[in-house]
Structure formats: C-alpha cells, structure tokens
Amino acid sequence: MTEDAPTGDAAITLLIVDDHPVVRDGLRGMFESAPGFTVLAEASNGVEAVSLATGLDPDVILMDLRMPGGGGVDAIRELTRTGARAKVLVLTTYDTDSDTLPAIEAGATGYLLKDAPREELFTAVRAAAQGRTVLSPAVASRLVSAVRAPRSPGNEPLSAREREVLALVARGTSNREIARELFISEATVKTHLTHLYAKLGVKDRAAAVAVAYDRGILG
User: Fold this and answer.
1) Alpha-carbon gap, residue 9 to 217, rounded angstroms
2) Which of 16, 183, 185, 214 could staple 144 via S-S, CB 3.0–4.6 A?
3) Could you count the other beta carbons within 10 Å of the beta carbon of residue 96?
4) What kind of fold does domain 12-148 have according to CATH?
C-alpha cells in the first residue's frame, strides 16, 4: 500500500464497506452531514470493495470484517498486494485476537469498534487519511499482547537511528518522507524498519507503534 496522503483542504473521500444496509446508510448520513468528507460509494462485501476502490481511488476505506461474499481481511490483503493508495480503517464489532491481528498484518492503517463516538470516528478517519495509525484502546491492548506472546522478542535495544525512524512512523510519515527528512535513501529506511520490526517482534508499522508505546519507547 502506498503512503501518500491527501493534502490541503480537499475533502477526504470515503468508501464504506459493510454487509448491513442500515449501517452503510447510517455511516453515509453521518459523514455527508459533516464538513470535509465525501462518500464516493458503498460496498456490501470485500470483493466489491476491492473493485470499487480500484476504480474510485478513495482516500480512506471504512472496512467491516465479517461479510458474506468476501471478508474484510482478504480485501485488505488484496488492496495491499495491488498497491492501492487508500488507507483502510477497520470498523467492526469484533475485537478478538483472531480478528484484530490478521487485519493489521494484512495492511489496515487502523482498527476501531462500531461503538466509537461520532467525533472519535471523524478524528480517526482524518488521521488514517494522513497515514497515522489509529487503534481503539481495547484493540491496542489485544494487539500488543498478541504480537508479544508468540514471538518473544529479545531485549536488544533500538539504535538511535531506528528510534528516529520509529518516531517518524508513529507520526504517519511515509518512507519517502522519512528518507528526505533523515537524508537517507528509501532502501535504507526499509532496512531500518526491517531491523526494528525484528527487535520489537512485529511485522508491520501499526504493530511496531503499538508495542513501542507499550514499552515506553515512544511517549
């Protein structure tokens, strides 16, 4: 998934993916009544979501997980594989380990539960559009436990440069922007990310940020 984010005052474009029409109608009404958002389309399953995202190129996809005809995790994985620009924000009622970790590992930028307050959802979509990781507290706690327990990462400390890269990742900075800010190549940024992932015992940016906050490396 590419890491370019919308800039300026342009409205954030959305694709809403949920198998329940009432939920889709509610989300569409909520976002269309608020300034700064444009709902491009709705999809009822993951397969339809991938097809629409390819044609419409939304900034953010609000993705449910368990849907007949094509689940959210498979859709996220396919969007990541094809390099879709859209940031995927999971919005679901499920917060079990079997749901959260696969979605984040597949490439989701964030994960919220459907009981999130209206303003929290708006803030999360804005953050996701900028490439920032968004995790509800309950999901963050589960994610940290899930990524730490099976991998048993060592205690090797991060280097000063790896800490710099991690701090920029936590701010939603793309690899290209990190390279420009630190005066290194994108290939070197990816190498640093690979090393710090191994040290933290994680596989992606979202999990790295969650574990880093849990360990006190960030904040």
Assistant:
1) 33
2) 214
3) 10
4) Rossmann fold (3.40.50)
